[in-house]
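Researcher: I'd like a structural prediction for the single chain below. Treat it as a standalone chain; there are no partners to consider.
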Amino acid sequence: MGKILIVDDDRGMKELLQIMLEREGYDVDAVESGKAAIHQCRKKKYDLVLTDLKMPRVDGIDVLKGIKEISPDTVVILITAYASGDTALAAMREGAYDYLEKNFDIEDLKTMIQEALRKKGLGKQDDAFPAKSGDDALYFGNIVGKSREMFKVYSHVKKVADTPANVLILGESGTGKELVARAIHDNSSRGNRQFVAINCGGLPENLLESELFGYMKGSFTGAYSDKMGLFEVASGGTVFLDEIAELPPVLQVKLLRAVQEKSFRRIGGSEDITIDFRLISATHQNLQEKVKNGSFREDLYYRLNVIPIKIPPLRKRKEDIPILATYFIEKYSKEFGKEIKKISAYAMELLMEYEFPGNVRELENIIERSVALETSNIILPENLVISRDQQHESLFPPEPEIPEGGLDLNETLSSIETQIIKKALEKAKGSKTRAAEFLHVSLPSFLHRLKKLNIQ
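Model: Treating it as a single chain, here is the predicted structure.
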């Protein structure tokens, strides 16, 4: 499972973490000072050290440096109240694996530790957890992502997959809600049975009812024979109702009965049909607001929302953009018979600066178009078709026009340099260290430029 050392001068926090991790099956030791931690690491080799950043005399940075000298392979995770500050970033440069803020979620910590130990070839080996494949890209079924936010989703999927509880997946359009639903189904005991999906907003009410519940011969014009509904087709498996907020009120009543009683009647039928199914629903809308305004039944909402899983938008997990882009490049290069291997650095910079209102689906469409248009073996910026009316300001200003009378090159370059530096400072939220890192220059060089250009 892995040997873990906890370092925290707060005795209560130290004991809480030790108890929690021992229950997870880890071999755990705990000390209350940085000095004791370094001494302990000389006596015993640890796979992972979890240390507080702010401690008297020997702080978390000192612990990190000392441990890396003794055992370079030991993973170090810091707990800090300054996760966005220069100190935490300095810790990352010194070799810290990651850091958590003081008000961390226990599940986030468990997931981070599992990921760290898995990269060392340790930890819980679970086929349902994402597998690593090239460039640290992580795959969970057909879901791609290695961000902390997505690991939290993977953890939830693992926990709920083999329970009978109804799941409500929440997230903006294009975030991959159906992929998550399929992952839940595939990792459950129902995985070898039917997975039936339908978009509740994609059909008129009468057609939606017949698709869901079926009908009897002669029940309406055109009903020439009996027809099974999707609930019957999925018996023993999983029903996925996408955009559940669009379900008409009449069908909300019928769905509530099907969920409560596991039975329903076909249109025109007089006999109850009993079925065994797992229900997963999804929506990009606020169902609680719909309950408040009376457009969605409260009793149905609570039946559906037994276990909620929220999918983060792509703009909240930008570290997933490069591996998603690579995944889609490989997919569409193979589909279109091309030999495109990668995306240029500047094209990737444009993607990283874009907010993706359409989320992963929009990124996939952009890459698909780019692969189709590209004639070389690398995707270049000119073939990266991004919606101009939605594109946020790029890190770099547009190319300047040269007027008839010419221009002052030094003045123009200074103006462009000033714009870039101000944009980097804005992106770094005022941190000069981070701004220098964004621009790939040393901190002294960056400070010299600030002084030269009179940027405050």
